[in-house]
Amino acid sequence: MQGLLQYLRAGKYNDGTGLPLHKHKNSGVQWLYRYTIHGYSREMGLGALTHELANQWRSVLHEGRTHIKERDKQKREAISNLHYLKYIAVDAFESRKAELKNDRKYRNWFAPSWRYIPPKLS
Questions:
Q1: Of 35-44, 87-96, 110-119, which has the strongest mean pLDDT?
Q2: Which InterPro entries match (predicted)?
Q3: Fewer CB atoms near the end CB (10 Å): N or C, the chain?
């Protein structure tokens, strides 16, 4: 299919399942999912798993939600589940603490993570 796309002119082509293919002037292509909600017609770009994603978003729309709010909700959930490096480092240190012999070994194990990693992240 990829070889055939290079011969298409710029424009939108329908695949018959409600997922138009948008051929750009710069030879890029993008699958679109078109829908209407609350009287507004919208388009949403989809990636490689086009038909599966379209079915997922159809069910979201069927429930009366918009893809914009749903994506924002997914981003917020992803951020809330994010594990910060400082917590991971403390957990790793606590799990290795029993293997370390004395206070000097504690400092030697933990100091590099606080000295070198945070400056690289900022």
A1: 35-44
A2: Integrase_DNA-bd_sf (IPR038488)
A3: C
CA distances from 107 to 11, 87, 96, 104, 111 (A): 63, 17, 12, 5, 6
Express each pLDDT in 64-83 by its tens digit. 888 888 889 888 888 776 67
32-54 b/e with 16+ CB inside 10 Å = b?
A: bbebeeeeeeeebebeeebeebb
> What are the tens digits of pLDDT across the range 74-108?
888 887 766 777 677 777 778 877 777 776 666 67
Give pTM, 2 decimals.
0.40
Whether residue 15 contacts residue 21, with contact meaning beta carbons closer than 8 Å, is answered with yes
SS3 89: helix
- Smallest CA-to-CA distance from 34 within 45, 23, 24 is with 45
